[in-house]
Amino acid sequence: MNSFFxxxxxxxxTVIMGSVLLFISPTAMSKTITLEQATRLTLQQHPDLQQYQxxxxxTKADKxxxxxxPAYHVGVEAENLLGSGxxxxxxxxxxxxxxxxxxxMGGKRNARVALADANLSLLQSERYVVSLELLSxxxxxxxxxxxxxxxxxxxxTSVSLADEALSIVEQRVEKGATNKAEFLRxxxxxxxxKVDKASAETALAIAKQSLALFWQGDAEAIDKISGSLSNLPxxxxxxxxxxxxxxxxxxxxLTQAINVKEAEQKxxxxxxxxxxxxxxxxxxxxxxxxxxxxxxxxxxxxAEQRNKGASQAALAKKEAxxxxxxxxILEIKALLFKAQQYLNFSIDAVKHIxxxxxxxxxxxxxxxxxxxxxxxxxxxxWIASRDALIRARAKVIELSESxxxxxSLVEQWTGLSGQASPTQEFRNTHx
Length: 431
Known about the structure:
- Helix 6 packs antiparallel against helix 8 (308-374).
- The chain is an alpha+beta fold.
- The chain has helices at 35-45, 47-66, 108-174, 180-212, 238-246, 249-271, 303-306, 308-374, 379-414, 422-430, and strands at 2-4, 22-24, 32-33, 73-79, 94-103, 224-225, 276-285, 290-298.
- The strands form three sheets. The chain has a four-stranded antiparallel sheet, with no helix packed on it. A two-stranded antiparallel sheet has the order 1-2.
- It has ten helices and eight strands.
């Protein structure tokens, strides 16, 4: 079996699923889904990502529009014609053909293009962050589905143990070694275990359906889900994790948002500079049969004063974007600390239960069963020991699920450097 990590080549460009450490079976059936397959299907088909193709096309079109120079205008003017008296007819007519446009001042076109570029960079960054968030959600659902699969396996084990217990109790009743009430309790325990198994089957079906929705599929397309919760990531110091977050795509996106506001401010400042309108033309006078050149320029007065309010508003919006970035960093810092603490705790707890608790409970359950068959222990002693073992195994599933879920959150916010990944391929293909 081959384990797979989904990491990105760039530090800010990680794939969320890396630490889940799922395994692909070499004998997997056609309907067996792996995390890698689920990732590719989600990247290809989820509407949250598909919409960005249209948004990117629109933003690129905005850049083309921003790069246009002012339009040229052709004008024709006729004066002193079709009047009365000496001005009747066209004898005294004057005809002017002119070309006019505007000289943009203050680097307006460059400012427009810079804003369009900033918006494009922000959109690309947002798309990538959304892909990370989506794949993180996918990973968590995949882990939950794996946990549901293992809970079903544990429920099936419980049914087998309860069935075995019922047979043992029945044999003891036949020998007169115990009473009918004990048999009834054993039979009730078996029926309850069957109900728990049915509940686990329902939970697994729901989990599969929730997973398939990420690529607009359905649960019927998933026969089996490949993977295991048994391999957990290594513990990490929070300080190292937080440093990775500061260098991640999430912070890059927040920085890009500030860059957009800076570009907007520069455009407002450029727009405050008055443009110069110009016109040049040729005038023909019929009365004297002469031709002359006419020219004109004009500019608005006090243009900078009229745009002072817009400049102040743009500066305030840029400052607000900086505060918003700092606020979000603080929020994610708190969430990151919580996720990493729970991750480290879950790793230690799983190891402790596997190394110390389960071996003792397994040994104790075997000894109590042997003792019960000899009459040394009661039925309640045996069942209590067995139930404690099942609860411990269920706790391992719960803690393993918690560890991998929190790891997906950590990787969503931090990013990892390393191998090529489906998400990196997505970024390279669409940029």
